[in-house]
Amino acid sequence: MTKDAGQAEGDWSQLMRDAIAGDQRAYRRLLTAMTPVLRGLVRARAAGMDASWCEDVVQETLLAIHVKRATWDSGQPLRPWVYAIARHKLVDAFRRRGRRIHLPVEDFADMLQAPPEPDMLERRDAGTLIGRLPERDAALLRCLALEERGSDECGARLGLAPGALRVALHRALQRLARLRQEET
C-alpha cells in the first residue's frame, strides 16, 4: 500500500471515528471524500447503465453507511466496510432492475431459425405404438399428444375429471413405455 493510500485510509477511518463521536464537520468531510470514490466504483461495476441509475446506487450506499455507521468496528479500516456496503447496494439495484437487454426481434428475423417441421415418420410410429394400447389409453394419448389438445378438452371428451385424467395418463404412459421396451 502506498503512503498516500495508507494516509487516505487512515483519514477515512479517523474521520468516521470523529463523526461517530459527534463531529459534524468530520462527517461532512468524510462523505465529501467518499462520494467520488463510490461514484467511480459504481460506474465501473455498472458499465452501460445510465448516470442517474448509478447516482441512485451511490445515494443508497451513502444512506446505508449513515444508518449502519454504528456497526462499523472502529478498530478496523473503514474502506473495506464501505466497499462491502456499496457492493451489496449495487447487487440489490441490479436485482431490482433486472439485467435484461431489450432488442427488437424484427432486427434478427432473418437470422432466427424456423421451428422444425414435425417428423412424419416419428408421428406415424407413435400412432402405431399408441394403437396397440387399450382403447381408453390410446384415445387419451391421441388427444393429448397427437392432436395436441388441452387436458380439459381431452378430459371432457373422455368423461374424465382432472384427477382421473392425470391417473389415466400416468398409467397409459407406463403401458406405452412397456410396449416400447418390448420392441427393443
TrEMBL record:
Keywords: DNA-binding, Sigma factor, Transcription, Transcription regulation. SUPFAM superfamilies: Sigma2 domain of RNA polymerase sigma factors (SSF88946), Sigma3 and sigma4 domains of RNA polymerase sigma factors (SSF88659). Pfam families: Sigma70_r2 (PF04542), Sigma70_r4_2 (PF08281). Residues 37-100 form the RNA polymerase sigma-70 region domain. Residues 127-176 form the RNA polymerase sigma factor 70 region 4 type domain. The keyword DNA-binding applies. InterPro entries: RNA_pol_sigma-70-like, RNA_pol_sigma-70_dom, RNA_pol_sigma70_r2, RNA_pol_sigma70_r4_t2, RNA_pol_sigma_r2, RNA_pol_sigma_r3/r4-like, WH-like_DNA-bd_sf. It comes from the Bacteria. Belongs to the sigma-70 factor family. ECF subfamily. NCBIfam families: PRK12512.1, sigma70-ECF. This is Sigma-70 family RNA polymerase sigma factor. It comes from Paracoccus maritimus. The lineage of its organism: Bacteria, Pseudomonadati, Pseudomonadota, Alphaproteobacteria, Rhodobacterales.
